[in-house]
Design goal:
Two copies of one chain form a homodimer. The first copy, chain A, starts with a helix and ends with a helix. In chain A, α5 links the parallel β3 and β4. In chain A, α4 packs parallel to α5 and α4 packs across α9. Chain A folds into two domains: 127 residues, Alpha-Beta Complex (Aspartate Aminotransferase, domain 1), CATH 3.90.1150.10; 244 residues, Aspartate Aminotransferase, domain 2. In chain A, the strands form three sheets. An eight-stranded mixed sheet of chain A has the order 2-9-8-7-6-3-4-5, sandwiched between helices. A four-stranded antiparallel sheet of chain A has the order 10-11-14-13. A two-stranded parallel sheet of chain A has the order 1-12. The longest helix of chain A is centred in the C-terminal third of the chain and has 27 residues. Chain A is an alpha/beta fold.
Chain lengths: 387, 387
Amino acid sequence: MRASEIRELLKLVEKSNIISLAGGLPAPELLPVRELTDIVRGVVDSYGWRVLQYSPTKGVSIFLEALKEFMKSHNVHLGPEDDVIATTGSQEAIYLLARVLLDPGDIVVIEEPSYLTAIQVFRQYGVKFVAIPIDDEGMITEKLEEELKRLRREGRTPKLVYTMPSCHNPAGVTMSYERRKHLLELAESYDLLVIEDDPYSYIAFKPIGAPPLKSMDDSGRVIYVSTFSKILSPGLRLGWVAASKQLISKLEVAKQAVDLHTSTLSQYIAAEALKRGIVDEIIEKAKRVYEAKCKAMLNALETYMPEGVRWTKPVGGLFVWSWLPKGISSRRLLEVALRKGVAFVPGDAFYPCGGGENTMRLNYSFPSIEEIWEGVKRLGDAVKELL
Amino acid sequence: MRASEIRELLKLVEKSNIISLAGGLPAPELLPVRELTDIVRGVVDSYGWRVLQYSPTKGVSIFLEALKEFMKSHNVHLGPEDDVIATTGSQEAIYLLARVLLDPGDIVVIEEPSYLTAIQVFRQYGVKFVAIPIDDEGMITEKLEEELKRLRREGRTPKLVYTMPSCHNPAGVTMSYERRKHLLELAESYDLLVIEDDPYSYIAFKPIGAPPLKSMDDSGRVIYVSTFSKILSPGLRLGWVAASKQLISKLEVAKQAVDLHTSTLSQYIAAEALKRGIVDEIIEKAKRVYEAKCKAMLNALETYMPEGVRWTKPVGGLFVWSWLPKGISSRRLLEVALRKGVAFVPGDAFYPCGGGENTMRLNYSFPSIEEIWEGVKRLGDAVKELL
């Protein structure tokens, strides 16, 4: 399923009574709508017209300072040679990294499944994928090692590894400490860059059991990407990259041509929300809300799914990933499901090199708990009809 | 002078007592800082969490509708097959258009001088420029016709024309009605697309004397680009493209990979500011403020510049463009001027194919009237020292 098809699916669902487990939207009840006016008054009082004026491509300095503090307090440790740039969502971070780092024909190591729009961006830059499967402990780094050895025999080396080690989208799993160590050792041996995409670790509702790759990195190989979309608001379009000064400087030049700079107002709002502790309040609330919603989905799956259907047990994030019995196509299931009044995203879109026809991604963050139960019930009926 | 050098120059000036005629920032007194809190309260009351949530790549529909009304009321008429997309500033509009329309080796017709970051973007896509000089009536379309004939004899045709017909940046001039008609006739004969970049026509303080190219276009060739940066706030990063449905749809796909969508909050703020008439109030105020500042600069130039220095008499926009006597380099002048406490941007950066060594761009929108007089006085002293 292509991104454009998914967009059409989401538009269709929006206009109907279909329960959507297809989107990837944060819970509306977590968005700081009531605080927003007061935050804006605060930044206008403190900074006046500056909040509406052009600002530096790299970011508003008061925001960047608050962000560095925030990362530190959440165990994301930068190296002495690192710097930070504000981006228009983490989507732009990934886009700019691809633009700056990749040439057609480059090899990119990516998890299978992986984040859809990252796959899309890398594909646009004409790269070749090496897809590494994941299990309950994240990317199977033993397989990565095999692939790296095989490629070396052919005289080839990947340019970078793109990974979402904590609360993986779409798979919901988290990479273990041992695997993280192994990944970094391999990166060192084979001279690879590692993009750590980390939108979710802040709101994990169970212990992740390992620091971010960035904090374990001794040699400046890890490029850390994150976003305010799940800890403040996606509508602000505010993400960031933490990496070596040289790379940040290249991203700055690339970004200037793309959009000059990230919304000044969004950066001031985020700086103020960090200062007032609102972001950390949202994080605590998000853990409770998502834990409850995830639990509802897991219980509903347990209740309504027939034998032979499997699913992940996330420690965080917005999604449960599920496998249908072999031979059952999730695209065919979607047709039946839509008739029964529930939508989800077929999993093949998340496979960079094809496959995954029997997988699906189920979102629990946006629907209410009632909708989750009813949606999974309808989905269970659809699966039974197909079996 | 490269864009990166200009950035460094602006950083340097920011931290000193140098009067800057180098930037391109709107007048701070025009930014609706006092209205902002109330606008935000208004959109939160009306739309709740939607103002902080993800929104469609093409734009928030309530914003797009308000924008279409606004364009209509300002004489920008779309064709029946046209559509509109919101972009992260008009910078992203230009970037996405380059990404969607241009291949390496394509020929792009561009004014000489032209908008710096547009030149940069097109150059990144590996195009060849055909530079057409401008005079007091804008692009000299007779020269364009000659160039098109010459290219046709070589079996080549440009893919598109990039023009800023109203209140040109950096030259400050406006294309006459006859030239606009001629340009569109040529576009028709030679099957060219035309990008009309129009950030300034809304705030022109003298009559422009011609409708936008978009409103004169019968055959769907004109791609209209504009921005809220000069009529509301640059910090919101909110621009737009109006063009054929097919092109908008391609831009939508490209934009999804770049940044998913434009800030939801920025779009709601702009929709509300349009609805409340705040944008039209700013426009009226901007005309008065910029007319006074422009007049101050022209009077100061008349007072302090020695014989042999020429400059444009803008009908709008943010800049006066100036020619030094032949043989005087504006880069050398900048060194002297910085010593005397005034900065400007040397004009060669705005020449897509080289040249313009004796030209400079002077900004009147950001400095106060007192700073304009003092800045031009210092600049006049610097020129006299060099002569």
